[in-house]
């Protein structure tokens, strides 16, 4: 297997580890909450409860104080009722050209996984906005989930600009998404810092 194949496998395994770690943390929090609820029920033993049902399909967990939306302006966000972040796997995006699934998207995933934490921490210091590992992980996960849609957006934009060379298009898309990531993180930090100052 060539070096490129190892990088793809590494990125994929890294993504799975991040997702599993986030899910394990959420499960631990849910277990702690269930234990607290059971203690409360035992303390209020005078109340008769026939049955307790947990509907996890209806459970919504807000992990961030705000959500990082790459490439969306405040006006566009105002027109969106519910923006669900897709699972960051290329297989869920069959509309993407095969070349993007083989090289561009894995490379962008690698960029976010490798460079994202450093960018976040650098901006965190610049804007004096502390970011712990959990928030950093949530931000990375959110960015990974939005990459396929942003690739489609910039692919369309490149073709509207009449770019025809595949390597030129791929380079254009990668550059635009990397700029977007940085600017979105910068806006997020600046906004969070401003909101904190208004309290």
Automatic annotation (TrEMBL):
Keyword Coiled coil annotated: yes
Pfam families reported for this sequence: GerPC
InterPro entries xref list: Spore_germination_GerPC
Keywords, in A-Z order: Coiled coil
Coiled coil: 13-47
Protein name: Spore germination protein GerPC
Upper taxonomic lineage: Bacteria, Bacillati, Bacillota, Bacilli, Bacillales
